[in-house]
Amino acid sequence: MTGKNHLIFGGLCGTLVLYHEFMGGVPIIPTAVAAGTCMIGNLLPDIDVPTSAIGKIFKPISFLIQKIVGHRTFFHSLLALALLYAGMWYWSINSGNSCVMAARFGITIGYAGHLFLDMFTSRGIPLAWPFSKRCYSLFDRRSGGRFETAITVIIFCGVAGVYYAWRRFL
Fold first, then answer.
1. What SS3 class is residue 136?
2. Model pTM above 0.90
3. What's the mean pLDDT when you consider all of the chain?
4. Which of 54, 133, 138, 168 has CB atoms 3.0–4.6 Å from 43's, for a disulfide?
5. Can you say whether residue 129 is alpha, beta or left, with left for phi > 0 and alpha for psi between -120 and 50 degrees?
6. Sign of the CA dihedral running 123, 156, 2, 72
């Protein structure tokens, strides 16, 4: 998926997070932090590409990461997601700050959303890396173009539908 579509999906997921948190009684400031960090989390797995949106911001680090692990390896795995969540959890527990706790939620949801979206490309992602290099793909389509944007919105509608059904019926 392209950075533009990751931002679209991150923004839409951030809106869903905003609704979920605010309707759950969370104050507006932490809710806004959760929604905003969802977009950041959605860009984060592409830190291993110096030409990506986040890679351009952290170019020296991104270049080094790309040289060491390459693209779509560690940062596109469930191991990276688990380590990110563990690190964010540790930070939020030690800080006790509601905005840090909200950021943990938003970044983790955004990161998971990125991995989910990348499964809709022909290349797929190595979920079990480093234990297996097998890439998992749900859809055989190259990245880019209007079709990808349409698929991104359709996927989000599916996610929102599942969320709505879960809130309504469970």
1. strand
2. no
3. 86
4. 54
5. beta
6. negative
